[in-house]
């Protein structure tokens, strides 16, 4: 089980009253599974997603109750200490927040996000920073989640495998080897480069890609291969003309002592950050605070920062960060390739306003996947897009699921989208899950009157004469939610008991549960 949500209650304390946006949401997501969350606008789908990632704006929002287990760690552990509630007259509530505790909670959540939850937002433009280039933003996400891999790669390539000689002067030596043919690895680089030029003349993308990757392997830095690939790709008539550019790129292996030391320091800081994350995760798993362990790691972090304060000085910072900047740029290009962007180098150099909505959404997916998440939450990822681009994005998500085995929580009000990619569907209404079932089961045999209404309101190609039905009324105001079954004012089958007591979730078949008095299966656990 990747995610297990039980009895989740999220409220918003507004001036008009308390909005009970989620009222006991319970469901789970298994490893590698795609679960679709459907319901009309205002049902609480986004609030569910934001609760899991703890991105509920606080104030006014607050998770009041419940457990969210992510791989066994309770994400809501310590939440009760973050605020105190006092009921005033006229049903108003006074909330006093304890900001130190809230900050701690946020730090814990950062640990979890790094460990495997990513989110794609409804509005790609609002999730990107307009003043930074695309590559900068992908790089930031990349360094946050996989900084170790990038730094290790750089350190190894600059020193380890080829001995100190090449590390000392990559490009110059590369040129020297051409005449003496003495060096082992440098000679091999030269060979791989010649092979690349030869292949480039044939103008065949696949073989060129293979040759470029071989060059990256030989050099010990995969990003050099990517860079060489894009350098020669466009100029198949005369690829040799790109040699100076590629040789310049090899200078990346040619780091100064200061740059190497900076990389080592960044590596050490990341190790400490991981240790801290491990403590946080352990706390959430065991339900026991370890303030001493936390403090010790924080102190070591500060000691290291203090010892190496000069890396932050103006003039030094730009120099020492250069290898990382170059390296992550090409990593970003690889990620953009992964989401089928045809001209990744231009896109990476560009800024958010230069891209279309579909393009930005792909960039967001690239960013969300840069950390190989175990759980991807996609909140209406295709709603703002054209139909053709929608299909491409869904295809992309399907591929990712197969390749990485990511579990996906896909939120949408479009049942067609769900039918295409989801394994199971959870139908939400006014802050509750009212029905949950395997996809086929729900489409063939919807049980809850609300689910039946939703299905009757989608156009059908097989029977175009069938009139479209819509559910009368609208989603209720959640400050004053209807009593009992929240759907009763709109339900064609409402009975007296529906107004009084909330229906329990009952089991109506293999993996099929529904909360409605029309059915009488055994009551579901949880
Ligand atoms: N910041 C907020 N302040 C007050 N109410 C909010 C806030 N965010 C969401 N809500 C309420 O929570 C309910 C669910 O919203 P939401 O999850 O965004 O719906 P949707 O299913 O369309 O994603 C709505 O009734 C909305 O009014
Ligand atoms: S519990 Fe009653 S009101 Fe609610 S959906 Fe079922 S029949 Fe309708
Ligand atoms: Mg929403």
Chain-wise SSE layout:
Layout: E1 3-14, E2 17-29, E3 34-38, H1 45-52, E4 61-70, E5 73-74, E6 83-87, E7 93-97, H2 99-114, E8 117-120, H3 124-127, H4 134-160, H5 163-168, H6 170-180, H7 185-202, H8 205-219, H9 222-233, H10 243-249, H11 257-286, H12 291-307, H13 316-338, H14 344-349, H15 357-369, E9 375-379, H16 387-404, E10 407-411, H17 415-421, E11 424-429, E12 432-438, H18 439-444, H19 449-456, H20 496-500, E13 506-507, E14 513-514
Parallel strand pairs: 3-10, 3-11, 8-9, 9-10
Antiparallel strand pairs: 1-2, 1-4, 4-5, 6-7, 11-12, 12-14, 13-14
Bound molecules: adenosine-5'-diphosphate (ADP), iron/sulfur cluster and magnesium ion.
Distinctive features:
4-stranded antiparallel β-sheet, 49% helix, 14 strands, binds iron/sulfur cluster, binds magnesium ion, 8-stranded mixed β-sheet, 526 residues, binds adenosine-5'-diphosphate, globular, alpha/beta, Rossmann fold, single chain
The structure class reads: alpha/beta
Which ions, cofactors or small ligands are bound in this entry? Answer: adenosine-5'-diphosphate, iron/sulfur cluster, magnesium ion
CATH class of the domain at 3-130 and 372-424: Alpha Beta
The appropriate CATH architecture of the domain at 3-130 and 372-424 is 3-Layer(aba) Sandwich
What is the helical fraction, as a range of percent? Answer: 40-55%
Q: Per the principal axes of the C-alpha atoms, what is the gross shape? A: globular
Strand order, main sheet: write it out.
8-9-10-3-11-12-14-13
Number of strands: 14
* CATH fold group of the domain at 3-130 and 372-424: Rossmann fold
**CATH superfamily caption of the domain at 3-130 and 372-424:** P-loop containing nucleotide triphosphate hydrolases
Rg, Cα atoms, Å: 27 Å
Largest sheet: 8 strands, mixed
As residue ranges, the low-confidence spans are 160-169, 176-184
Q: Number of helix segments?
A: 20
Arithmetic mean of pLDDT: 85
Strand share of the residues?
15-25%
Distance between the termini: 14 Å
